[in-house]
Amino acid sequence: MHKFANPAQFTRLANRVLPWTSFFAAICFIFGLYFSIFASPPDYQQGETVRIMYVHVPAAWMSLFTYTLMAVASASFLIWKHSLADIAARALAPVGASFTAITLITGALWGQPMWGTWWVWDARLTSVLILFFLYLGYMTLVNAFEDSEKGSKAGAVLALIGFVNIPIIKFSVDWWNTLHQPASLSRLDAPAIDPSMLTPLILMALGFKLFLITILIIRMRTTLIEKRLQAKHLLKSG
Amino acid sequence: MGIFFTLVRRDLLLVYRSANDAWLVLIFFVIAVTLFPLGIGPDPKVLQQLSGGIIWICALLSAMLSLDRVFQSDFDDGSLDQMILTSYPLELLVFGKCLVHWLTTGFPILLISPLLAAMLNMTIDSYPILLITMLLGTPTISLIGVVGAALVLGSRRSGVLISLIILPLVVPVLIFSVAAVGLESRIEDISSALRLLGAILVISSVFCPWAAAATLRNITN
């Protein structure tokens, strides 16, 4: 773990991994989209709108997964002071916010024909919206300081507080109001979903995850290059 | 405990001497509540139904107003650095800051809220519940808010930033409080909501001073 905290090591590893992740992400998306649009049956209740789920559900998973990664990166930044962890957390935030926005938008598009409304103040919807606000809060906080080091520390603490608070928010809105269906995959018994629909869902989920890794590596590499340029510039002018 | 009480007394004295600031929050609260009947119409039935929510939302927003002042003056004149450097636990000093913030924001709001509840035509039965939720909920807001105040210390536009990062985090307090005050809540619902509010208060009174102190140590060095 700590070996890769070295920026040069990381860049070397990133350059080697990046072609593979982007290649497999593309493959997963091509097959996943093919399966979800053409090769899977319409739902007996939802009809063709079920296809929105193949984007909505993976995006929703990723919105939570990205926040978890951000919290882990923030914790390791606070504990070991690896600047790479901070770069990772900063790089993850806009990606996670985008996943959350995709979840909300596709959910609204699905809700209009299914529930007859774009938006309801339901537990799931509300807690995802609050997750979106947490991402926005993090992004504004890290960029609100003259000294970016301060922004990183404040942001890391906020990410951790948000992470602790997410279950509480989740439960509070759960008891408050609910319409959204419960989880159908992560149950103790067999998943309550037909294999013909599970295939595109899993392919898309894999695609989303590989896409996240690809984007993360690209964004982190860019930040490292920017920092090096800045350092060089300072050397020259000083 | 000496330093703790000295700090609390000093901060209270500071607020008392610049009384204008303390009144500002209270006046904002009253004006904000007054806007609701003007905005949604004076129908007593509607107002009765919304009264708990209106009072709570306005209390939340008012509490945000005074948060950016919690550490600012100490940060500007360097006394915050001294507090961090003393051997006295910074967590306790931060707890004192929370206490002062509550005594000068949450507590006055709590005191004036029955008056506003009457103006919003709240049912008599809901008064004690509103007061209990305020007694349990407003200290939580001060505790979580002080962490926010520590986080934004030294940033640009810290006032708006605090609201942006703290309001999503205090959603549970709002939900449980309004659920307890709500018109058609049964006695079991009320007691479970109050217990949860109490639990959140206890957890945040342990966790928040610690988080705020850690932030202060990290940011100022």
Comma- or semicolon-separated keywords:
heterodimer, A: 238 residues, mainly alpha, 6 helices, 0% strand, globular, B: 221 residues, 10 helices
Large-scale geometry of chain A: globular
Cα-based radius of gyration of chain B, to the nearest Å: 18 Å
Q: Report low-confidence residues of chain B grouped into runs of 5 or more.
A: none
Low-confidence stretches of chain A: none
Mean pLDDT of chain A: 85
For the largest interface, the chains and their residue counts are: A-B, 30 and 27 residues
Tell me the number of helical segments of chain B per DSSP (H or I, 4 or more residues long): 10
| Quaternary structure annotation | heterodimer
Structural class of chain B: mainly alpha
**What is the total tally of β strands of chain B?**
0
Strand content of chain A: under 5%
How many domain modules of chain A?
1
Description:
The complex is a heterodimer of chains A (238) and B (221). Chain A is an all-alpha fold and 238 residues long. Chain A has one domain (18-178, 196-237). Chain A has 6 helices and no strands. Chain A has helices at residues 7-37, 53-80, 83-114, 123-142, 148-176, 195-237. In chain A, α2 packs antiparallel against α3 (83-114). Chain A is globular and about 70 Å long. The two termini of chain A are 35 Å apart. By secondary structure, chain B is mostly helical. Chain B has one domain (2-220). In chain B, 84% of the residues lie in helices and 0% in strands. Chain B contains 10 helices and no strands. Chain B has helices at residues 2-17, 19-40, 44-65, 69-77, 79-85, 90-119, 126-151, 158-166, 171-181, 187-220. In chain B, α1 (2-17) packs across α6 (90-119) and α7 (126-151) runs antiparallel to α9 (171-181). Chain B is globular.
Short description:
The complex is a heterodimer of chains A (238) and B (221). Chain A has 238 residues and is mainly α.
